[in-house]
């Protein structure tokens, strides 16, 4: 004798609840309601998922609804009738398995961050047309010029000399035809930027007058800085960061997305910082390689770091952009290592 | 209204001995209860999240169907739970369609200004239709007492409802097009006409926003159907302006106060500026954690209290202050637990919002019958609604 369950039945056409009795027999759901009798194949019914709270509703293919306010009674009947919970439901109802899911979730996130994200970025970079990169870089430069940069006040002869020396260094450090395309821009900057250089997507390298003036007696160090920026250009770090940022914020949106856009932005920012530290190390390695290839000792960079540190002490500026660079001591050690 | 009068007239002529049970003529208040639990939703959420991540998002529609089923089966109106009938496989189709559209849009927007404009225009053209489809899908797949709800708003109505929000945006684009110089010189000040047209469009947008919200809500709440009852929103537009004005004052007052304080502090002791700069993001966060729930609580009350059909009257009595505190607590705990508190926050918010609602019903629900069987096959709209964060307010 198959177990029976009394519950409320709505026929889908009227809002009136009717007392009904159900049981499973011959692979069918048998529904008896007053003088009416219906049967439905088990597979055509949408069964409720077991949970601690809430009512149980089974949705019938003809629009009818079976409703059981006493969830425990339904669960007992379902178990006795041989209705099995789905794998997902059993998973969700077990705290230990949920703990495992949480651990797996963290592992997946970690794997994605360590390998998945760089791989996905790599794939995306291969897809993106170079024109796009040029355009993003051009926009970024226009943006910077409207707020932070003015035309350079350096004598043209000094600019040309640096341009020449850097071109030679690039030629020496790369096999013919292998050097990345770059455009060197000399610009005067507001004091907030100070002695600085940066690379933009598409190959634009911006060098501030303050940096050239700071290292006027050691132009080799300026070449080292430019080689560092060329490293960024070669690895397409600018675009890489932009692509990664969009991927991370998409993933973060999945986790905390509809809750708050602000919260979703935090992980994106944090990963950005960590990744850009890795990028700085890569660019440093490129600078060191170029300097050695041009017959310049990488130790010229030590003077640069020291003067930069002094400069920073004098100007009590907010430490905004520096967290994205590795610590000075680490970089000094790297450039003072014997070749 | 005329029904009431007729009935009263009939009652008095028959000396109140009509033979009908008296209760049938009385209005009855149906309470809404929410029985969901944070810890249970946490377990559902974790497993859903893991499956969504592992399948690169393909599981999302299934996760959403489960989430809705959970919240629906725990939402009891007069002791009867809501039912969710949406087919996750259909929702997957809509989800994929939208993913493709969004990706294409994102790509076009980055490629060239012209293709970005074209994509934006296309999205603007499609969006109202998707929005309406989302409302139709969600309502048609929601049942109470075995009867499906429905949404009868027309496509033309959706476009008309959203039009006021498009007008200032269009003006802004036109201003750019007409007055922006061919080759912008970043150091030159913005051309006067361009600046004026931008400011005018922005002001217009601000002025039109309450009207726009009123139109949107009127469209939404004028299309809900249950049995033979069709709802209508009868809130005058000026009350939306009242709410907008309050929100604006609540924004400007602290801002002015903060500015004045900063000016005094800097005049007295200059290094204080540094600390104020640090505190600024916190103040920003605090502001949003408090003002957003305030506005949304007031809006929920305004809109639902004005929603009624011939025999149904919806009511909402959501207090703004407790909702603001709850939201602040949710934000803090979610941030502290790196997002793990989110399912608890969702359950607590749903409880507060839902239990503030109730229904006044005239007559006997048992006699109500479905107007027609409502079937809606296209789930694309539903995914669109979720994707772009359009919520139905409940």
TrEMBL record, chain A:
Residues 5-80 form the DUF7092 domain. GO terms for cellular component: membrane. This is M48 family metallopeptidase. It comes from the Bacteria. One of its GO terms (biological process) is proteolysis involved in protein catabolic process. It comes from Paucibacter sediminis. Belongs to the peptidase M48 family. Keywords: Hydrolase, Membrane, Metal-binding, Metalloprotease, Protease, Transmembrane, Transmembrane helix, Zinc.
From TrEMBL, chain B:
The chain crosses the membrane at residues 42-62, 91-108, 114-135, 156-180, 192-214, 247-268, 274-295. Signal peptide: none annotated. Keywords: Membrane, Transmembrane, Transmembrane helix. The keyword Transmembrane helix applies. InterPro entries: DUF898 (IPR010295). The keyword Transmembrane helix applies. This is YjgN family protein. It holds the Pfam family DUF898. It comes from Paucibacter sediminis.
